[in-house]
User: Which sequence fits this backbone?
């Protein structure tokens, strides 16, 4: 544990994370609690906190862990969960979300974290940070509990856009592989394309085209292409990165979360019924806690926006201190790894390789 | 328990189910074991069993429960899991699958059950039974463990087709509601349309069109339309029938199954580690068994093909006796309820109502 290491000399090397304090379901208190957790476990981190200064100032003052490591940037307005992205794009200036993103644009922070409205965050990130050269559709990548040694797989897009063309799938593959290399420490991630069957003749036309391009770009993008994968493979150890369009990815993500939640509730019910069961639950408390930790969505909190000139981490709207701290940890890791520059280089070279495949037409189609 | 009630007088009232004995992963022995289970628990059921007579005859003879209640129809050929649907359509005559479907076509059986190749079963069902008048795309409906009092929701399409237009979604809604009325005994099922958000302005264009038609056909189709639902609502008590295209539905189904399997395995692991945990698991055995029973995919085994002139139940390829018996129970319930005639009437009247909405253009679009 480290706390209160606030000498200016150390501060100079710190990784700065820009944090939107407002707009989450639990308000700024949960966000500040997350900063405190992060500051305790990571002595090389500092924060730019955006929101209502009158509210934030006393909250920060209460925590010595944050002394000298958290600068407040006043923003009077808040993006709510009900605001439409199109409105926020026009009138978002002066909100804490806009201000938090602009700190990354200005190079003052290595990444931005927000618990706010996903659509608005993506819209503002697009207009303020702009897309990386060569990227058509940015994507949101999430982590998914899996049977792999690291415990997680990457899936994208889980909701930035509702459709994707063949070239978009290739870009998702390239960006997802870069994320897995820097976020999960995998040298050569295995990438799969989500489909309704693993046979090459199955599925939608754009998926067959994407299959060829993803296979051709294997070397340039630095991944191993395992071909089509199915829904059951998402939590498996067959693959590290699952590529899909934002509509399908969002449905899969929420279906998985809903199923896990149902089972957890049924489990609680089962152990709550009858004295013997309650006793057993007490005895098994450690086992159950281990399991819960493994599938706890708060621990893998943080959808990363890929394909922009800046790293944006979207925390769950309902995130508590643990969830916010997880999102900040992820943001700091990506900021430190030089992830963004590497990703930009891969997108450029993989794009050329995929294009060659499209032109040569060395198709695998039936 | 009832067994051996084989007098011809009773046999005359029996519900006859046509069963494809071949093509499942576990071979005909698992299918025959399922017949035995079904015969024991349902004295009013009889079977037409299709497959290799030399193999089936001695298997049937061993079980007194099946005496006088199981007629074998010899079919020399088998559709394998690797056969392509297009090939089976051309050359499928003489297979046990073809023969099993034809018994329904000829009116000899009230429904057909097969553990074989899904694509081939759908293709053969289409050409032998033909689509119901007014149905454009038949669908596969599955049951999904849920928080509803009955314990299950219906989702369709989970893989008959990879795309769907606005009018298809309306037909799925109508057919799914009819299935929920007759299969889950719900008077006025609540129907939701799967999307990436519940706001009306979100999602693909065909979903916005479908939204209007499904709302307009509420009365004619006999359901309550709850609007858009998300992936997390699939196992919820907000809705009874979830309508989606076959691509998305298949991914959601397999993602849910994969997630449940992962958690079950982690749970086993957690209770296997350490003596105290093992002891607790023993104490909690009944609780854990109750939970397992609740989410056991074998108990809800049976995808139903909707929109054909005949009831077809697709059992999991890997189904064991319990799984096959569940599929047969479902087939018998649908055969007895007069489901097919009612469904045909609903499709006709809902189609007219949805068409009126399209013509009048009383749109909810932005």
Assistant:
């Amino acid at each position: 544990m480290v706390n209160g290491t606030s000498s200016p000399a150390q501060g100079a090397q710190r990784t700065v994370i820009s944090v939107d304090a407002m707009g989450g379901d639990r308000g700024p208190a949960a966000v500040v609690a997350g900063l405190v957790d992060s500051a305790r476990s990571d002595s090389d981190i500092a924060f730019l906190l955006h929101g209502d200064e009158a509210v934030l100032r006393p909250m920060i003052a209460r925590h010595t862990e944050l002394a000298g490591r958290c600068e407040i940037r006043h923003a009077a307005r808040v993006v709510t969960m009900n605001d439409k992205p199109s409105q926020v794009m026009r009138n978002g200036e002066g909100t804490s979300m806009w201000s938090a993103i602009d700190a990354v644009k200005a190079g003052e922070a290595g990444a931005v974290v927000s618990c706010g409205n996903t659509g608005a965050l993506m819209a503002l990130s697009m207009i303020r940070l702009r897309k990386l050269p060569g990227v058509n559709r940015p994507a949101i990548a999430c982590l998914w509990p899996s049977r792999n040694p690291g415990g997680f797989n990457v899936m994208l897009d889980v909701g930035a856009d509702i459709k994707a063309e063949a070239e978009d799938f290739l870009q998702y593959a390239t960006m997802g592989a870069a994320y897995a290399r820097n976020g999960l420490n995998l040298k050569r991630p295995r990438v799969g394309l989500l489909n309704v069957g693993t046979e090459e003749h199955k599925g939608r036309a754009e998926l067959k085209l994407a299959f060829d391009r993803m296979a051709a770009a294997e070397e340039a993008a630095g991944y191993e292409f395992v071909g089509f994968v199915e829904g059951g493979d998402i939590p498996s150890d067959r693959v590290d990165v699952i590529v899909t369009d934002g509509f399908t990815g969002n449905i899969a993500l929420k279906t998985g979360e809903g199923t896990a939640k149902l089972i957890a509730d049924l489990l609680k019910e089962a152990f709550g019924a009858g004295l013997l069961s309650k006793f057993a639950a007490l005895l098994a408390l450690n086992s159950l806690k281990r399991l819960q930790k493994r599938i706890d969505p708060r621990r893998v909190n943080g959808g990363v926006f890929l394909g922009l000139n800046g790293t944006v981490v979207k925390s769950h709207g309902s995130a508590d201190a643990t969830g916010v701290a997880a999102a900040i940890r992820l943001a700091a890791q990506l900021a430190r790894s030089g992830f963004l520059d590497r990703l930009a280089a891969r997108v450029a070279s993989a794009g050329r390789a995929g294009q060659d495949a499209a032109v040569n037409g060395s198709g695998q189609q039936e």
Summary: Residues 246-272 of chain A form the longest helix (27 residues). Residues 1-11, 362-366 of chain A have pLDDT under 50 and may be disordered. The first strand of chain A starts at residue 15 and ends at 20. Residues 35 and 285 of chain A are 29 Å apart (CA to CA).
